[in-house]
Structure to design on (174 residues):
């Protein structure tokens, strides 16, 4: 990775993909960063937050960004949002909309999902042991799985594909 890189210029706009994986020296991204396609920040352990109104037209890969504690209001992700292994993450912004899959494998710091969450494809919660409930009116375009810690299903839950309740030992009634 680019361990010597510590910052990016303000107002940076990238028409394609931006690869910054394993750039452990970067602690923040510039305001008004716009990436038309995919943004790769895999293993950027120094990043603790993302700028407000970050816009990513494609996929946003944040796997292993263990220093990340929250996501900003106004975050827009057209494709997948991959937060696998973001153990420091404690919250997601209200009204978060993800056009593709939302991967939260092993996000042990999360205790809830935000109101108004909308996921265009799959929502995967494997290893999110702190999440015990789902928000009302949650919309999942395809599949909901890995929610083993939940104790009940919310009012207004909409799942377009399959609802996998395997291992959900806390649910006593539907």
């Amino acid at each position: 990775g680019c361990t010597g890189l510590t910052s990016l210029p303000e107002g940076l706009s990238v028409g394609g993909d931006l690869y910054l994986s394993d750039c452990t020296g970067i602690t923040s991204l510039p305001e008004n960063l716009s990436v038309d396609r995919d943004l790769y920040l895999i293993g950027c352990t120094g990043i603790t937050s993302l700028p407000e109104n970050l816009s990513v037209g494609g996929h946003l890969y944040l796997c292993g960004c263990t220093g990340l504690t929250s996501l900003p209001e106004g975050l827009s992700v057209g494709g997948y949002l991959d937060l696998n292994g973001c153990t420091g993450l404690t919250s997601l912004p209200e009204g978060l909309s993800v056009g593709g899959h939302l991967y939260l494998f092993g996000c042990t710091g999360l205790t809830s999902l935000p109101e108004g969450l909308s996921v265009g494809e799959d929502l995967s919660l494997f290893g999110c042991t702190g999440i015990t409930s789902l928000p009302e009116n949650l919309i999942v375009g395809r599949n909901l799985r890995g929610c083993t810690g939940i104790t009940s299903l919310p009012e207004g839950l909409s799942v377009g594909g399959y609802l996998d309740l395997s291992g959900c030992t806390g649910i006593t009634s539907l």
